[in-house]
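Following up on my earlier message about calcium ion. Here are the inputs again, as you asked, copied directly from the submission form:
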Amino acid sequence: AKERGEGGHQRYRPGMEARGAERNRKAAALRAAMQQEQLVVFFQPVVTLPGGRIIGAEALVRWQHPTEGLIGPGAFIDVAEQTGLIVELGTWVLRSATREAATWPDELKVSVNVSARQLREAGFPAVVAAALRDSGLPAHRLTVEITESVAVGGGATAENLQGLRDLGVRLSLDDFGTGASTLSLLVTCPVNQIKLDRSFVPDGDASDAIADAVVQMARAFEVEAVAEGVETAEQAALLTRLGYERAQGFHFARPMSAALFQEALATELAA
Ligand code: C2E
Ligand code: CA
Ligand code: CA
Ligand code: CA
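Thanks, got it. Here's what our run produced:
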């Protein structure tokens, strides 16, 4: 977060210029990476509980760096947000993910993460509509994942969320349970799905109270519940006992290239 002095001006602090320069350098590198088509979309399976059958996937962006190797979004999403590059990056992810998902079996869904900046911009539903039209993916097979801070964002956010619902796109509340107004958000921002944040996944030692409350809340509001960050068989069993019917996590599969995801689907169909 930026430090602000009186009147909203940034107070000078040593190192601030250096950090600004570092950010500009990173932004320029990311812009070049996009032009050179070094970004790739990985897909992490979403599976049934119990059973582990693939019912869809979440699209997660990666930077295939020529010398550094595969770089995760943690290293560049913030800079993309701060510089506005996220709008172009997000549109690219959306178009790639929908194009890929259109080649999967009909019942499989794809989830795409959308940032606050994208959702604030007037005309975002038209960008989504164009991606659906150009890919041929039916709207109900696309889920847009938003976090609480995205959902309460300003600008055209509220109109855009309604615009997405009107298109027939599904909405999911990501990192559920970590926000301050998570509960009231279910009323003010109707969604189709909530994703239990991985910090609340029970593992036998920690309390399962939040995971339990969230799945019951999901039932009461008639929304799907997905548990994310499931790393062990023990966690999967505990979640199943609580009533979770969908999960995502390293225990089932890591995010993988589009080609490997297709292979995973083929292997499952052959089994
Ligand atoms: P997220 O949306 O909460 O995505 C889930 C993250 O958890 C992914 O990290 C995934 O690799 C990781 N994960 C999945 N299963 C497990 C597990 O069992 N254990 C652990 N420890 N982690 C697991 P990733 O791919 O590094 O993405 C980090 C974040 O970057 C995402 O968090 C999302 O907020 C953001 N992000 C990724 N792709 C995009 C994108 O295309 N657009 C935007 N706006 N944000 C993106
Ligand atoms: Ca997500
Ligand atoms: Ca999440
Ligand atoms: Ca344990």
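One observation from looking it over: DSSP finds eleven helices and nine strands in the chain. Hope that helps, and feel free to reply on this thread.
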